[in-house]
Design goal:
Two copies of one chain form a homodimer.
Chain A (H helix, E strand, L loop, with lengths): L1 H19 L6 H8 L3 H7 L3 H27 L1 H9 L6 H14 L6 H25 L3 H19 L7 H12 L2
Chain A binds a DNA duplex through α3.
DNA sequence: CGCGGTTTACCGTCCAGCCGGTACAGTCTA
DNA sequence: TAGACTGTACCGGCTGGACGGTAAACCGCG
C-alpha cells in the first residue's frame, strides 16, 4: 500500500542511482522500475527534489539502525571502523551519486530544499559516528578514530584501491587500543 | 591567446561549479563567464565531457605543484595533513560538485570518458599523498596519516563542522611523531 | 444494513522549456 | 594566409511537472 509503494520508489531510486549515476534518474525511469506510473510517483513525492530528500532520510534511518546493531556486535568503536569499509561493490557508487544528486540541484531554485538536503547529509554522518562518540571518552582518540573511518570511506568513494586488510587490521588494533 | 583562453574557460567552469552546482553548468553559462562565445568554447573543448576532463587534469596539476611547495615548507607528512583542511570556504563546494559532475555522466554514453574521469580522480589523490608516502617509511604510520588526511577532507566535504583546532594540532603531533 | 460522499492511491497524457551540439559565415590579429 | 575565434540561427531530444481522470476503500448516518 502507501508506505510500501513509497519504499519501492526509494529502492528504485537507489538502484538507478547506483547503476547509472544521476543523469539516468528520471521520474519515468524511477516510476517504471518501481512498478508505478509517473503520476503515481508524483503522488508520493510531489517533486524530484522531494524524492531525493526522502532517500536521504531513509539512508539516515538505515545507518542509525545499522549502527545500533553493529555496536552491539563488535562494540561501538570497532563497529564504527568496520562500517567504514564498503561491503557491497556498488555502495560507493550509490553514495557518490547521492552526493552528486544533492549537490547537483544547488542554489538554483529553492535554497530551502538545498538546506534540508545538506542537513540530512550531516545527519547521516552524525548517525554513523554517534555510538562511537558515546563509547570513546578520550576526545583525541575519538577524533582519530572518526577521521580514520571517514578517510576509509572517502578512499573507497574516489576509487582508490582498498588498503591491505592485514595493514588495516593492525591499524584498527593500534587505534582502538586504549 | 590559446592557452590563456583555455584556462579562463576552466576557471569559469570551476567558479560556476563552486557557486551553483552541476545543473548551473551549461555551455553558454561557462562561455559567458569566460568571456568567450559558445562557439569559441566548443573550439577549445569539443564537448562538455572534454571540458570536465580538462578541469580534472588541471586540478591534478595544481595539486601536484601545491604539494611540492607545501612539502618544502612544512615537510611532506605535515604538509599532507595541513593540505587536508580546506582554506577557501567554497573549496569543498567546488569539489563535491566536481565529484558530482564526474559521477553524473555515469555509464550512460561513453564508458571511455567515464574511465578517463575516474582515472584522473584517482590521480588527483595520488598526487596529494605521493610526497607523504615517500617521506614516511613506516607503512602503518603512513596509512594512518593518509586516512586521517582523507577523513579531514571528507568531513569538510559533507558539511560537518571543523574539529577544534587545538585538538587537531594535538592529533597531528601525535600522529606525526616519529 | 445500505448508501452517499469523501479520501486515498494511482494512471496516462500532454506541454513548454531547456540544453548540448551543429553549421556556417564572418572578423581580427600576427 | 592561417589560426583563433565571434555570433547567430537552429534542431532534436529529453524531462519535470501539471492535470484531469478513476477505481477502490472507508466512514458516518438513518
Amino acid at each position: 500500500m502507501a508506505t510500501d509503494t513509497r519504499q519501492r520508489i526509494l529502492a528504485a531510486l537507489r538502484d538507478i542511482l547506483a547503476a547509472g549515476g544521476n543523469t539516468s534518474v528520471t521520474l519515468e525511469a524511477v516510476a517504471a522500475k518501481a512498478g508505478v506510473s509517473k503520476g503515481g510517483l508524483l503522488y508520493h513525492f510531489p517533486s524530484k527534489a522531494a524524492m531525493y530528500l526522502g532517500l536521504l532520510a531513509a539512508v539516515r534511518d538505515t545507518v542509525t539502525t545499522d549502527m545500533a546493531e553493529v555496536a552491539g556486535r563488535s562494540g561501538a568503536a570497532r563497529g564504527f571502523l568496520e562500517y567504514a569499509v564498503p561491503t557491497a561493490p556498488d555502495e560507493a557508487d550509490f553514495f557518490t551519486s547521492l552526493i552528486a544528486a544533492v549537490r547537483t540541484g544547488q542554489e538554483s531554485e529553492s535554497a530551502e530544499v538545498d538546506a534540508q538536503a545538506a542537513e540530512l547529509m550531516v545527519d547521516i554522518f552524525r548517525a554513523w559516528e554517534a555510538p562511537m562518540r558515546g563509547a570513546v571518552t578520550d576526545p583525541l582518540q575519538a577524533e582519530q578514530i572518526r577521521l580514520i573511518g571517514f578517510g576509509l570511506y572517502f578512499s573507497a568513494l574516489v576509487g582508490l584501491p582498498q588498503p591491505d586488510p592485514a595493514l588495516l587490521a593492525a591499524l584498527f588494533d593500534r587505534v582502538l587500543a586504549r
